[in-house]
Amino acid sequence: xxxxxxxxxxxxxxxxxxxxxxxxxxxxxxxxxxxxxxxxxxxxxxxxxxxxxxxxxxxxxxxxxxxxxxxxxxxxxxxxxxxxxxxxxxxxxxxxxxxxxxxxxxxxxxxxxxxxxxxxxxxxxxxxxxxxxxxxxxxxxxxxxxxxxxxxxxxxxxxxxxxxxxxxxxxxxxxxxxxxxxxxxxxxxxxxxxxxxxxxxxxxxxxxxxxxxxxxxxxxxxxxxxxxxxxxxxxxxxxxxxxxxxxxxxxxxxxxxxxxx
Length: 261
What we know:
The chain has 261 residues and is α+β, with helices and mostly antiparallel strands. The chain has helices spanning 10-23, 33-44, 62-75, 81-93, 98-110, 216-248, 257-260, and strands at residues 115-117, 133-137, 143-153, 160-167, 170-176, 183-187, 197-209, 250-251, 254-255. It has 7 helices and 9 strands; from the N terminus they run αααααβββββββαββα.
């Protein structure tokens, strides 16, 4: 069943089984995260779940993302699903920029592109009114970005960066590529090794504007839902492990679970 008690469809059950099969045997912190991401993207289509079919995706809803995130939480896999397949994809879909969607979404859908959103300041607040970078108009229609974004999800493995920036007319969104001049990506040491983060510094980096206003609030809310599903999956697995242990561990000649029954 889904979180609201509605029975899952046959397709949703198959999706859960397929994701769990790919993740079977993975140990948190172990190598192989890139291989697992490749299989999730190419064999199951996880990277493009919410991307419309016209852009190479499955056109699925948030229920399917929630299923995937629950399974990722159960295995604590370090994947770019939250940062790329959810947050970045939602920003693109909500931008209203069909040209940018046609250019980027097919690569995101098949996993050949990984996108990261360079948003937050050092305070780490995912606040639409508080972005880390600013942009000024440059030559030939380009925009020039400056500033340092912190806590960038999957920033070190990203092939394209979506950068919310302060502009004269409000908050905009730029497309910038990590390997170009003026962009420095630095991986961060995190307490949670399954959640790779990075700091991205922009020093006169040229970018292309996407849409008019950055739809930060809506994209953030969807990402929060996906993160909650991941946490629920991790909690459910922790409960399973605990119950299993209390049934197997014997003390004073009886399973310890019987003392709390």
